[in-house]
What we know:
InterPro entries: 5'-Nucleotdase_C, 5'-Nucleotdase_C_sf, 5'-Nucleotdase_CS, 5_nucleotidase/apyrase, Calcineurin-like_PHP, CpdB_N, Metallo-depent_PP-like. This is Bifunctional 2',3'-cyclic-nucleotide 2'-phosphodiesterase/3'-nucleotidase. The protein is an alpha/beta fold. It folds into 2 domains: 36-323 and 332-365, Metallo-dependent phosphatases (Purple Acid Phosphatase, chain A, domain 2, 4-Layer Sandwich); 372-650, Alpha-Beta Complex (5'-nucleotidase,  domain 2), CATH 3.90.780.10. The protein starts with 7 loop residues before the first helix and ends with a strand.
Amino acid sequence: MTLRLSRRGFIAGTGSLIMLHPFSVRAQEGQAHLRIMETTDLHAHVVPYDYYADEEVDTVGLARTASLIAEVRAEATNSLLLDNGDLIQGNPMGDYIAYERGVEGVMHPVIEAMNVLGYDASTLGNHEFNYGLDFLQGSLQGANFPFVSANVVTTEGATPDKDVTLVPPYAILDRTIVDGTGAEHPIRIGVIGFVPPQIMEWDRRHLEGRVTTRDIVESAQAWVPRIRAEGAQLVIALCHSGIAEAEHMPGMENAAVPLAGVEGIDVVLTGHSHLVFPGPDYEDWPGVDNVAGTINGKPGVMAGFWGSHMGLVDLLLQREGDGWRVTSFTVEARPIYLRSEEGDVTPTIESDTEVLLAVEDEHQATLDYVRRPVGKTEAPLHSYFALVADDPSVQIVSIAQAWYIDQMLQGTPDEGLPILSAAAPFKAGGRGGPEYYTDVPVGDVAIRNVADLYLYPNTVRAVKITGAQVKDWLERSAGMFNQITPGAQDQPLLNPDFRSYNFDVIDGVTYRIDLSQPSRFDADGAMVNEGANRIVDLSYNGQPIDPAQDFVVATNNYRAEGGGSFPGADGSTIIFEAPDTNRDVIVRYIVEQGTINPAADGNWGFVPMPGTTVLFDTGPKAAEYLDQVPGLAIEPAGDAPDGFARFRIAL
């Protein structure tokens, strides 16, 4: 495929009102405008449909982004379309393909849609490995574009550039570029990919013994000179890794800033964090210029998630001898919808019909898959208050995990040890918006409801830890809350930097959280206040917990293998690795019970602070469940930004 995409004639011929980018307008002889387009973290969202809510939505979907692709291609003389990973997992369509239909002899629908759109290259994201290497490699078959990843290794060499990698570490795209006079010139573009090394923790069961990972920056330092030696005149890093610390630390998960500092890289496309850059998420960030759109001085972009944005890096190139030099650039993350201050969503683009048709059969099969009833619930399962009180949507996950592990440990040396269960709310608003909550009404429970309760295809794990480690595990979770001044009014309760999936509630013990104390751990799990004690009155069977007693904690592979940096969960304490996913266990539990009634048992709460009130934001539908929140004096407190509702808790 040659990159010969002059849009001037197209626009004149169609009468389109699309405006050319200034670089295309002013490019002269020997100058060329190249537009680099990025999608990232699609997570199998091809159709603008929320399978959990079973309704169409305007905020997601590659079919929507596809129409944006056509528009932005028309604005540029030359363009390149790249994806930054996390493609095949993340919603029920991904699960349906992995668990029921498979990919043997048929193309994965995400790949089929990408072929329709003419992608030039993609990298692997960490969630590509969730279903195992065989499924991953089968899913990539039929792609009309290369997949690259430089730091997932099947055979290690003496140096990273001597490694044998799972997929090619990089690709050289030979293209023809059109300058300002319409003259055509050859250009060689190198594309290299990276994934967080932590996949070895998160998907150890699939990867251990089959692949290893290298540090992102060290891999780039080894491979980029090879790409340049092969004649690449421009190098683009597909970095499925977020924007975080500016200083390089070996093995870091979010390495976009130090990666951009590697000599020879011209552009960094980033992702993984499900945020938007340039944008307010990255104001005053070390090594990042949120106005210019640069990461360590290089143009960079992060295009949200689920197709919410199209990342655009526009380069004005100057021909010098046989090569090209970047003389100017602009960066933009263009959304597929707008959200008003009141929270109303207005789509900015319609779906691409060709993409919808490409996955029409798989979409219908997914709908059939998620609508199957598996049992009934006598209590509503919602997560509107999951971050401030014991919650039914978390409760059912904990109950099912403990039920399963109790069976699995029978006949083992650990049979008879007390079993606890740790679970966290996955859908709790935040970046997902005011509708991003679990809400299963009383009545039939279908597979789509179970997927709504448990978003990820994690597998069950059991770890054996001490009572002291149970307390520290809960201290880590308690970082969800800001420190509250006794007697103060309407302080914000939740730490905005703390992710809801790291707010583990442990069932099987009772405890309270003292909000007047500082958090022992920061939002990333680092110890910051060693003497702090937020967890008080921690008891097992009505008695203070014995710090030396052994406990089994049912959890998932992500947590057990180190995800979230929880004390007692670093991979070394695992005593049981299940072949079953947490979702499957929940389904099996509901099927066996027939009817469930997982009302929250109120095993945790806050230490009273008389005369003190705090505020937290949640979905507007939370008002319907105010009378079901255990142990909290809570009342509406008006509207919150971005369509959320605000509530006041009297402590």
